[in-house]
């Protein structure tokens, strides 16, 4: 007997929802006159919450590979939004920080991000959110072993 999930394209549903969210967020950024991409925002968000994080840690948190993280940090650095500083304990390791301009951009764009999240969640309840995160965490763990 096959399990119902064997025949359901749940990945397609997840993927299309993510694409729709990313599109809506990018559109809001563009309308606000921001030249940031959603991927750049993701790193800015994590850098705001984790100042002085290493590139490797940033990659783990964002599930982005090392070349992608390096490329985005390079772009953010050129825009004056982030900076690399040598780690005191290891001169081969860089720690990444937002600049004051990066913190300003974070503060400007965060309300848009929150609004998009609220729009996406709509009328769903806190209990729905708990079920959603449990299910998504379970799917993630199924591929982490």
Automatic annotation (TrEMBL):
Keyword list, A-Z: DNA-binding, Transcription, Transcription regulation
InterPro entries, per the entry: HTH_MarR-typ, WH-like_DNA-bd_sf, WH_DNA-bd_sf
HTH marR-type domain segment(s): 11-141
SMART domains referenced in this protein's UniProt entry, alphabetically: HTH_MARR (SM00347)
Presence of the UniProt keyword Transcription in the record: yes
SUPFAM superfamilies assigned: Winged helix' DNA-binding domain
Keyword hit for Aminoacyl-tRNA synthetase: no
Molecular function as annotated in GO: DNA binding; DNA-binding transcription factor activity
Protein name: MarR family transcriptional regulator
Annotated source species: Fibrella aquatilis
């Amino acid at each position: 007997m096959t399990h119902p999930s064997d025949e359901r394209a749940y990945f397609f549903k997840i993927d299309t929802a993510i694409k729709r969210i990313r599109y809506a967020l990018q559109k809001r950024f563009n309308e606000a006159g921001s030249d940031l991409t959603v991927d750049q925002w993701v790193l800015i968000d994590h850098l705001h919450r984790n100042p002085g994080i290493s590139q490797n840690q940033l990659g783990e948190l964002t599930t982005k590979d090392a070349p992608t993280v390096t490329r985005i940090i390079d772009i953010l650095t050129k825009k004056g939004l982030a900076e690399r500083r040598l780690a005191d304990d290891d001169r081969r390791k860089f720690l990444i920080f937002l600049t004051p301009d990066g913190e300003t951009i974070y503060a400007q764009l965060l309300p848009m991000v929150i609004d998009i999240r609220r729009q996406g969640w709509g009328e769903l309840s806190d209990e729905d959110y708990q079920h959603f995160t449990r299910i998504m965490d379970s799917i993630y763990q199924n591929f982490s072993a």
